[in-house]
Amino acid sequence: MCLGVPGKVIEIDGMVATVDFFGVRRPVLLDIVDEPVVAGDYVLNHVGYAIRKIPASEVEATLALYEELLREAEREDLMAADVRSEIAAGERKKDG
Amino acid sequence: MADSRASGRALEFRDPRRGRELTALLGRLCADIGRAPISVMHVCGSHEQAIARFGLRASFPRALDVIMGPGCPVCVTDLPEVDEAVALALSGVRIMTYGDMLRVPGTAKSLADARAEGAHVDVVYSVAQAVEAARRSNEEIVFFASGFETTAVATAAALLAGTPSNFSVLSAHKYIPPVMEIVAEMPQTRVEGFLAAGHAAAITGSEVFERFVERHGIPVVVAGFEPLDILAGLACLLELIRDRRATVVNAYPRCVTREGNRKAQEALWRVFRSIGGRWRGIAHVPNGNLRLRDEWAHLDARRRFKIDLAGLWSYAPPQSAAQCICGDIMAGIAAPTDCPLFGTKCLPDKPVGACMVSSEGSCRIWQEYGGRPDLGA
Amino acid sequence: MTHEDGEKIGLKHGAGGRAMRALIKELFIDRLDGQPGPGVGLGAMDDGAAIPLGDQWLVITTDSHVISPIFFPGGDIGRLAVAGTVNDLAMMGATEVLALSCAVIVEEGFSRADLERVGDSIESACRDANARILTGDTKVMGRGEIDGLVLNTSGVALSRRVVRDSGLSPGDLIILTGTAGDHGLAVMACRHELELEGDLRSDVAPLNGLIRQALDAGADAVVAMKDPTRGGVVSALCEMAQKAGVGIVLDGPSVPINEGVRAAAELLGIDPLIVANEGKALIGVRAAAAERVLGALRGHPLGRQAAIVGTCTAERPGRVVLDTGFGRRLLSEPEGEPLPRIC
To answer: Is the pLDDT score of C104 beyond 60?
Structure first.
């Protein structure tokens, strides 16, 4: 529980943030997070400490990563198909 | 990661359609690589939990073998370390620890056994809770600290913030990167790539793997914990294997950067130093254990108390322990289903080995989530 | 099976899972069910019992309620006591309740006002179910000799047809009448004192009206029913699979789950599929009638989110497989409800 879970900062009092995890509010300590955190930010929580601020833009970046992987794979497949047919043609010539 | 109620953003990481596409991609990459099995290893209990919970192995191509390595910090806590905590508890000192440590067997007893005999052992969710308890009490409280570097930074932060004089730490913290070296060097190893734990890397940064890939020529991909994160991470890894590129790829950019969290790293190394030590089942791991630095000796339970282990060693271990193959399982050279005790004599409510005790142990995870079903989609 | 002297009953024996069923079999069924008569008796361990009475069946059931806390978001022990028994009758196919009984055991010192509040809930639940309590009993035990309040309700009904929980065949589909995990997570959140923004409320409700719609629409095509109380949807499906000797594939993404429940479950590390529901039913139907029955359910206020969540197969008889959308895994039968005193 509370291992590496992301939540949204509701309010901050000194080094203690009140963080909302899908509707449940828990205190999270800000001692070791390496960027300034304000209400509205998302943080990754691990055993009661925020270990990283999660920039909203990074969610996009990750989704983009998936898309890129899949697009590249399609391109490669076409290339691979070409290569494979060349190899097959080469084999046939060898045998023939 | 957005509030799931607001926009369902989080659910985009659980979109089955993308999952199917990524799974198909894994199949094509395995075909490109053209041999079987292709073994990759992850070193994180949370990765295994996600894989098991979502039944991912049933979708992986047959050629792909995703092995869990020594990624359960509780499972690799060696017998003498548990014995130290048990001995302290039996001598009358109050021990506080994370829930999983309670039932890990020591040479003779677990902390749960000690508690049943009247010792004071409490479960906490956070080190801060233990510090708070020490503030409110007069008695000596020892925090038995388990977990990898992600958890160790919390312990470090707590000490740096100041603790009452009746509080001390018995550190069983471990550091993951060195054990990857050990696994890579094991003669039985055929691991061709590593999936690294995203949250540990959020602290250490992905750069901590760069020397490893150079030295061993084995690629490392840092991955998150949603099913799509894992599938995408594996796809990246298979691409690197196919292209014979030994490099580090960060597939979890929303939480991980190359440098990581410098502040957390400073806190960690200000309080802890790494020393070599035994990991249960893995033997010696150089720099694998985290111990309090001399500057923190006054908070080190090992130096505050005289811990007498002799009393615990007069017990003979139970017969069935001899058949336990947790060591091989943690090293990734055997699966839970290879163990004669798995699911029969070794069960969550009567565990024989550490792998069945911890919620991050592969045996416990497999038992809970149905093992390795041959359920083709 | 022999047991060691001094073996004690544990909480697991009341959890609704394997241990409890083993206890019931050894302690009660083996002793009491020596000459089972016609109908559905003790040995069937179904939601109720049924005795042939002329050209109908007399259906009987009983339930004790030890839930803690007594008042929880969405209901209380009184509403639960009525709904629980009415629903067990409905699961046997008996939706017109003839009569209920209600026995009360109160701890000395219990608040009179609270007892009246429970009484009001009982009355309102009876109205919802169109049922009447005709008889009961009242006992008081000394302070500390019992925890607060315990209720037992029994119910009787007549029905032309008995629906068993063992009636599934390969090819049948399984409908869940609404969202999973509401009751268990609401009680759990209450106990852990989680302050939730969203509302986590128990779904406790009498289902006989809803089930009547399903039976009217489906008739003989409704082949099995069970309400997923202790141990949740997974326990109930495991039992249905075992008793019928079929395999069940549960489609994870189809199971309706409230966002608040999903969130609390993630946070607490609990699976909504293994915690108790007190206002839902699992209905096994012949495939051809599924859409018709689904339509009838969705037309009723308590069934708006009904969904087809599972399929019966001939493979892996007795086992339940979960399709997660990303893969599949075998669902092992849970030991029962993870939380004690949930109902």
So the answer is: yes
